Amino acid sequence: MSKKIIVAEDSSVIQNLTKKILSQLNYEISSVKNGQQVLDLLQKEDYSLVLLDIHMPIMDGMECAKQIRSMPGNNSEIPIVAITGNANNYTMEDFEEVGINAFIPKPLNYDSVVEMVKKYTDDN
Asked: Where 4-aspartylphosphate occurs along the chain (predicted)?
């Protein structure tokens, strides 16, 4: 069964590139543009990972991560990897506080993205 990943990113360019690269590795990708859409998807089905942009309209990544962690059921424990162009604005502690497992700085290095996705989706 392929692993299902949510890519939450308001930039279509980053969203499409990420989707293309991860789809080639047999991941099933759902793309959304804001945090509210992430929560909507997680209420409907289970996913393996959320790649979460921090700066998005409607609901940003930090608030979205907090909401995910307070959800009932399995999805509250889903790994969350933040994608951010402003990593300097946050420390790893800030991310951990809201339940984010790791982060990838922008501009994205797709080798890092793939490595991170594999790290959090491989069944060990």
From this structure: 53
